[in-house]
Amino acid sequence: MTRGPKPKENAQRRNKHEHAQTLSSSTTEGRALPPGLGIKTAGARRFWRTWATSPQAGTWAETDWAELEITTRLVDGFYTGDLKLAGEIRQRVAKWGATTEDRARLRMSIEDDQDQEQAAETAAAEPTTTDLDEELFRLLND
After folding, report:
1. Residue 107: which residues within 8 A CB-CB, separation 6 or more?
2. Residues β-bridged to residue 109
3. What is the DSSP letter of 84?
4. What DSSP letter does each residue of 24-80 carry, written as one string?
5. What CA–CA distances, in Å, run from 76 to 25, 39, 63, 120?
6. Which of 75, 91, 121, 130 could, after both became Cys, cross-link 44 (CB 3.0–4.6 A)?
């Protein structure tokens, strides 16, 4: 005898969050660094290039790009020696999903297109269990 009410027929789990997003791992073309920002350091240029071509950038609106410009200015200041900016930069990039933990909190996942294609090719190329059994049987009976 079980406790509790009888389970409903065709019960389904509904744990998928309505705002969850899955992004493609392919990089976007992005935007060029605006020359009017006056960026002086290579670190800030690399920061812009990294975020402008990230999978997240494919879904960004104009306000997100404006936020990237402001954050890039902060990163430029950080690389010129103002270490007090580190906390502010970290808070800003967390909102874009900079780390695995940030992406989990944002219910954001990034699919690796190449790994999925390679896995499909490998699965097609690997022999099935029955093929392996037949091969083993032939080897043992020779």
Report:
1. 17, 19, 20, 21
2. 22
3. G
4. ESSPP---PPPGGG----HHHHHHHHHHHTSGGGGG--HHHHHHHHHHHHHHHHHHT
5. 27, 6, 20, 43
6. 75
Longest dimension (CA), the chain: 77
Residues 102, 107: Cα–Cα separation, whole Å: 9
Distance CA 6, CA 16 (A): 24
Q: Report residue 97 as tokens.
A: 């999903």
Residue pLDDT tens, the chain, 142 long: 567 887 777 766 666 666 666 666 666 678 899 999 999 999 999 999 999 988 888 888 999 999 999 999 999 999 999 999 999 999 999 998 888 898 888 777 777 766 555 555 555 555 555 676 777 677 778 6
Report the DSSP pairing between strands 21-24 and 108-111. Answer: parallel
Is this structure's pTM higher than 0.85? no
In angstroms, the CA 92 to CA 109 distance is: 19
